[in-house]
Amino acid sequence: MASWLEQLQRELAARGLTVASIPGKGRGLIATCTFFPGDVILNQEPYASTPNKILVGSSCDHCFTSGNLRKCSMCRVTWYCSSNCQKEEWKLHQLECRAMAALTEDRKKMLTPTIRLMVRLALKRKLQNEKVIPSSSIDNYNLVDGLESHISKVDENQLVLYAQMANLVSLILPFIELDLKEIAQTFSKFACNAHTICDPELRPLGTGLYPVISIINHSCVPNAVLIFDGRTAYVRALQPINKDEEVSISYIETATVTKKRNNDLKQYFFTCTCPRCVKGFDEDALLEGFRCKNQACDGFLLPNSGKKAYTCQKCGASRDVEEIKNMRSEILQLSDKASSFLSSGNKAEAGSIYKIIEQLERNLYHAFSTTLLHTCETLLKIYLELQDWWTALTYCRLTIPVYERVYPPFHPMIGLQFYTCGKLEWLLEFTEDALKSLTRAADILKVTHGVKSQFMKELFGKLEEARAEVSFRLSSRHGHDE
Ligand SMILES: C[S@@+](CC[C@H](N)C(=O)[O-])C[C@H]1O[C@@H](n2cnc3c(N)ncnc32)[C@H](O)[C@@H]1O
């Protein structure tokens, strides 16, 4: 019989892919045919998954939707949206239910998503071994076994924590014989292989282990993107991927400077050598740096050798260090004030202060600065919550050029921002602008999200409505002209 690896390679070959060893990266996924933007390179159900919010019930354990949730009356931990979803999960949940129902209320509070993911993984392994649940070439424990753990690099404190977590899992599952060392190592695998399951608007819902998708390595300029529909993971091409090219996705938020990205990648134990990380410097100065004092110049500043002034790299004008320091400290004081208003729920007051911060930052930072971008994103969120559509639209529009500068052309964040912009323009009856924004959103999100999900159907519906309204307005305008 073919080994699990041969079976996996056979399955992947049918999809135009192969697993190969890549110098300095371990395994990686390589294309054996050409993929075009929007093509599904790989899709997979999780080996194990869990919603992030457990006891409060934020999404269905099976399909991850959020409406109509009902708690399992036996264990009072698991939530389902329908009896169909409950049935689909039953073989696995039957054992989990017994284990959870036996827990004290205090123990139930210790069920973090990571613990729950491990409980489900151990149960699925048992049930697949006993052939109660079928296995396949892309859904079997050997694939989990083959994942990178980096256990020898994990620090002492973390190892102690993994050992305690393994003990807790064995208390929850007293009816399964568990190898505690192996469980601790699997927690370490979760840290560098598990994926955050997000809704179509990229809001986190849960955590899942997708052992074939976990073979894909990271790049800060990825050629593919991972998007979820429910808990099914889809990897789609963002650009043409040629035969023999490695498929890459991004593990982290990439609209940040090299130092921050490297820091965010620490949990994966490697230093990224993608073209962006190698080149870094000028882009970082643009994303993090100060603007030229000459309002007509779009250059960015770099510090002089004595660090007493900053010089514009375009026109040569310099800016005094003291002036920059004073502006930064004023912004810092205002930020403290704004975030305390925000945490006390006073959004209107917080919004007014963030508006002042945004103006100050516009004088200090380059227009593509991520600091300024984050302030605009905060203002967008605040004014959406306050239902002040006009102000929200102003800040939404300000973020788009920066997104277009920091993300590749087909990036979900750009598509989603155009979608928000289009919805706001529609509400404010800027119908022609709405049509343009919704068209841009659909063009990008078709590539990243495909065309079949409910989310995309809603977007196409809105686009059709905007198209009909614009042509109605045009025809009535022509009618008046005649
Ligand atoms: C999700 S796994 C990817 C598959 C992994 N290469 C393997 O052999 O199973 C994540 C791990 O792969 C490696 N990795 C991912 N992207 C990398 C990159 N760009 N450069 C070097 N190593 C990378 C790191 O060891 C990281 O912890």
TrEMBL record:
Residues annotated as domain SET: 15-252
Keyword set includes Transferase: yes
BP-aspect Gene Ontology terms: methylation
Pfam family, one: SET
GO cellular component, one term: nucleus
GO molecular function, one term: methyltransferase activity
Keyword line: Metal-binding, Methyltransferase, Transferase, Zinc, Zinc-finger
Residue ranges annotated for the MYND-type domain, each copy included: 60-97
Protein name stated in the entry: Histone-lysine N-methyltransferase ASHR1
